[in-house]
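2.7 Reproducibility. Because tokenized structures are sensitive to small changes in the input, we list the exact sequence used for Fe2OG dioxygenase domain-containing protein, including any N-terminal residues retained from the expression construct. No trimming or masking was applied before prediction.
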Amino acid sequence: MPIATPQADQPTSSLTAKEVSYDTVDGKWVTYRAGGKPGRRAIRQPGEPGWVDTFDRIPIIDFANVDHPDIEVRKRLAQELADAAENCGFWYAANTPVSKEFAEQTFAALEEFFALPLGEKRKCSWVLTPGCRGYESFEEVAENEGNKSDSTLRESFVMGDDLTDPVQWQGAVPEGVKTQNIWPAALPRYKQALDDYYSKLLPFARSILHLFALALGLDETALDNVHKFPMCALRALHYPPQEPDESSPGFLAHADFSSFTMVLQGEKYGSGLEVLNLNGHWVPAPAIAGTTFTCNVGDYLQHLSDGRFKSTVHRVVNRSGLERYSLPFFYSPDPSAVLKPVVDPSKGRQTEVTEFEDAPIGEMFVRRLLAGVEIFIPDRLAAIDTDVECIHTWPPSHNDDCLEVDAFVKDVNTSLALSS
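Resulting structure tokens (single pass, no recycling of outputs):
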């Protein structure tokens, strides 16, 4: 039975893109970013006005039959997935194509990369690529998110779809396509490890997309038309330990701009992921035994489902006392896709028109990546000891009216579109 919906969350004009607190305000509100905008949710206790029946744990779904030859078996799995996506927006995916040994090898490569000297990691900085791929330091995360550098709580490395990489694409590379990924020359096995992992998850993600189509009462390939050449990204994350009473998040409270996300947390690294329920309470989503993924609906799938599947707010606070590593894989539609929701004719449309229907999502995707970024890239490039030539000129400010931003977004979006 669908869970009741509480009073609507409040969009908050007083909260900026670089909000000081994404946690609680006066003990009454949780603040976050979702749909590219700041908002807040009231913290409600049992018996208080607005309290609703909502999730207090993350459901576990067995995906052993994700590619079962009998479509009726797949439909039953699709219904189980739909229940989780409607009522929680999160689920654990057990019995996946990733073995324990394979996961351990991948995490070993992550540990090795993040242990490199900062100078080596910065040679594959994200400022050197057209799609913001590569390494982002603790300092850069703090600056980009408006935190003080001494409270920075993660570093990351991003790779994703790249037609210039023969591992991903063996055909002719269209003219004008730029290399999307950048790799550490000092650690060649790192690329191999992430390439192998990416290649393993891509077909699994496609199978999950088919389940969502079945859950919407469609042919299982019905959503393929906007996921022909999906924007995919793998983000390797490293979080240092936090004190038990430390409230600063390793990842600010947010909802994902993806169709869906699959996170391998790494059982030995403790926990830290938390999910916001409808009463404003943080529900732990710890790593569980085996190579079980923690998965969630993103903004694009919420829109395609006409609001039926929920893009749920979440954050990371690493109070485990351990170094934490995780591997989110983001699966998103084509950059050229203009998204229209799937509407039940008997009910009519349930949601309002959004920006996803006005223009190809590739441009909005890039603008969201750049939201709140204020670092001056030429200064950052000057500090990087690398022979790699910067492929674009970064603008010194990032507002929607800035022509330099528009030019940069156009350059990145053109590269994305050519890749499709």
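Residues 1-8, 11-22, 374-378, 386-420 have pLDDT under 50 and may be disordered.
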